[in-house]
Design goal:
- The structure is a single chain.
- The protein is mainly α and about 280 residues long.
- The chain has one domain.
- The chain contains twelve helices and two strands.
- The chain has a two-stranded parallel sheet.
- Helix 1 (about 5-25) packs antiparallel against helix 2 (about 30-40), helix 2 packs across helix 8 (about 140-190) and helix 4 packs across helix 8 (about 140-190).
């Protein structure tokens, strides 16, 4: 492990793995365990994001194995987000090439934008999905082999779970997986709507609460993540504090829930103009 802070990552992923296994095997059937799964499933999505920006381990074998673990925990290949996120979102933030640009939704009522954003973004990804596998096969053969392996492992994993107990597959795995993907895409609207992509400091919105950043591995410090995408997540709070004076204070929110309630339910800060 390259950074001691990733002990937290491994620990949280281990808890989710136990939640999946105990519920699928019907050892634990309490609704609270399923509710916890819907919360903890966000961790591997953030860990996958972090891992694709800054490798977790020092060796290829450990990184490849970790990518497989993240794949089965999220129901989506770890390499599958590299083009959409690392290359297009970071490289073309809020421009035509960005699959999660805020201008995909243009409703007057902001709660409708929040509701529709996942579907608009998913359609955009499907409509314009680049041929990344073909590109990787020619230019990045190791990544190509890893992507194929992740797809094969995920397909076998899902098939095995379906054969053994398809009802528990749908209840324990499919529901949290779908919720996680919805959150992963929709959070982009929270992080960028109303910001200035051309600004060097005000291109992103931050969630600065300690508890949520502890749990989601500092994913709330979005401005400095865009500024330093290759920096390990454990360094983001210090970088955020160092640049705090340069960022519009209105773009720093302590609570994700309160931010969503004010901006998307009450409509505060949204004029209804077509983006």
């Amino acid at each position: 492990m390259r950074y001691a802070a990733d002990r937290r990552t491994i620990g949280l992923l281990a808890i989710l793995t136990a939640l999946f296994a105990l519920q699928y095997l019907r050892v634990v059937t309490h609704p609270a365990a399923l509710a916890a799964t819907y919360v903890f499933v966000l961790v591997p999505l953030v860990a996958k994001h972090n891992h694709n920006h800054c490798r977790t381990f020092s060796t290829h074998r450990w990184n490849e194995a970790f990518a497989l673990w993240l794949t089965v925990l999220t129901g989506m290949t770890t390499s599958g987000v590299i083009t959409a996120h690392n290359r297009l979102h970071h490289g073309d933030n809020q421009q035509a090439g960005d699959f999660v640009r805020c201008s995909l939704v243009r409703f007057r009522r902001n709660w409708m934008n929040l509701t529709a954003f996942f579907f608009a973004s998913a359609f955009e990804m499907w409509r314009r999905r680049p041929a990344d596998l073909a590109d990787w096969r020619a230019t990045r053969p190791r990544l190509y082999r890893q992507a194929i392996l992740e797809r094969a492992v995920l397909a076998l994993f899902v098939a095995a779970l379906a054969l053994l107990d398809w009802r528990m597959l749908l209840t324990v795995f499919a529901g949290p997986w779908l919720f996680g993907q919805w959150f992963l895409v929709t959070i982009n609207l929270v992080q960028h709507q109303g910001c200035d992509p051309a600004s060097s400091h005000n291109h992103s919105r931050n969630i600065t609460g300690r508890a949520i950043n502890w749990f989601l591995l500092n994913n709330g410090y979005h401005t400095v993540h865009h500024d330093f995408p290759g920096v390990h997540w454990s360094r983001l709070p210090d970088l955020h504090r160092a640049r705090a004076a340069e960022v519009d204070p209105a773009l720093n929110e302590r609570s994700l829930v309160w931010c969503v309630a004010r901006r998307f339910i009450a409509g505060e800060g949204w004029s209804g103009r077509r983006a």
